[in-house]
């Protein structure tokens, strides 16, 4: 039995496919679901004013939280929200360790060739480094 599932979500159009696929799985009511979203860290060379509140980051956080709450309301069972900042693959793996996840469910953007080399693949990195099984949901 799966005790804890980490559902790794982002702001892409593929997130709805991941949610829909997840809802089709037969999950036990006792399974804990962690809805996780990683906000990528700002680029290191990006100028950030230290004397002003970072309203754009706060607004982004609030938007992500609101979206995750809507997904959470649509899912049955015990669920928790996790919104973190950092490298997406590293943070998903870190959250899987913290919550002792039995399964990670993540979407794939379907990148191939040069685009995959240049942009990298979060799902591939998670599959390679995760402490548990990973279910990758492909785009339509």
UniProtKB/TrEMBL annotation:
Family of this protein:
Belongs to the universal stress protein A family.
Please give one Pfam family short name.
Usp
UspA domain: residues covered: 1-138
Question: Which PANTHER family does UniProt cross-reference here?
Answer: STRESS RESPONSE PROTEIN NHAX, UNIVERSAL STRESS PROTEIN SLL1388
- Name this protein carries in UniProt: Universal stress protein UspA-like protein
Q: Which organism is it from?
A: Allocoleopsis franciscana PCC 7113
Question: What InterPro entries does this protein's entry cite?
Answer: Rossmann-like_a/b/a_fold, Universal_stress_UspA, UspA
Recorded superkingdom: Bacteria
